[in-house]
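In response to reviewer comment 3 from the previous cycle, which asked for concrete evidence that the modeling workflow produces usable outputs, we include below a single protein chain processed end to end. The sequence was submitted unchanged, and the resulting C-alpha cells are shown without manual editing.
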Amino acid sequence: MRKVLLTVITILMSLMFHIDAFSEPIPNEVRKCVAFIVKPGAERNKPIATGFFIGYKYDDNPNKIYIFLVTARHVLIDDKGMPHTDLLLRMNDKKTGGAKDFNLINPKAWFFHEKIEKSVDIAVQPLFPKEADFLVIPPKYFVTEELLKNNNIGIGDDVFFTGLLSYHSGSTKISPIVRFGKLALLTNEKTVDDKYYHFLDSGNIPGHSGSPVFLWTTPTRRQGKLIIGSRIFGLYGVVSGMLEYKKTLEVTVPKQTRKQIVPVDARSSGITAIVPIKYLFEILEGYRLKKVLGILDSK
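The workflow returned the following C-alpha cells.
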C-alpha cells in the first residue's frame, strides 16, 4: 500500500511540474526587440506595421555582431503599389523613456531575397538606432534546422508573436501586443500565389505584419512521457499575412487604411501565414548584402 501511495505522489508531483511548464510566462524582453513602422501624416503619424531587431554573426567576421531591422517586404509598399519613401520607426527614447518617431529608415537600403524576392515576404536593413531603448534577438535564439530535427518540432507546437495593435499602440511608450497560436501547416512548397509560407492556427489583424514569431513549446517531445524543463524558445519566422474567406481561401496582407472598419465580420479564417527563418538566413548571407557590409568571404 505504501509503495502504491509513493507511486501516486510521484506521478502527481510530475504532473504538477508538467503543468508549470505549460504555464511558464514568455520572456518579457522579446517585446523590447520590436518597433513600429510609421507613416508620416499631415495631422498625425500613423503606425502601420511591425519591425524587429536581430543580431547576426558572419563566419567571415565572427567577433562582431551586425544589427538588422527586419520586417515584411509588403509593408514597404503603399496602397497604390508604390514604395514608401518616408517611413519612420517608433521606439522608446533612451533618454526620456517615451515613445518617439525616429527618422532612421533609408528607403534605398532594404535588402530582399536575391533569388526569389517576390516569393519571400521579408525585408532587411542594417540599422543601429543608438538613441533608442531596445534589445536585439541574438544568434543563440535563432531556430535552426538542427534544433527542429533534434526536438521533433512540428504541427501542434506552441508559438507566439509580438507586434503592433493599432487600436492601442501605447501613448507614452510603445506597447506591443502578444498573440499566441500553434504550428498548423509546415511545407517547403510554394503556395498557389507563389509564396513560401508556414501557417499558424492564430489570428492576425492589420499591424501584425513584420512581427517576429517565436517558438515556445514544451520540452515534452514523446507521447506519454513527462519531461521536466524549460520551454524550447527561439525566433521561428516573420508574420506576413492571413487567410481570408472569399470565393476561395487566399492569403491577404493586412493593410492599414483610413476607412473605418465595422467589427462585425472580419472574414478571417483564423490562419496566419508566416515566412520561416531559413529564408531570413538566406537574405543575410546574400552576396549583395555581404558586399555592402564589407565582409565577403575572400575565398
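The chain has a mean pLDDT of 84. We consider this sufficient to address the reviewer's concern, and the full set will be provided in the supplementary archive.
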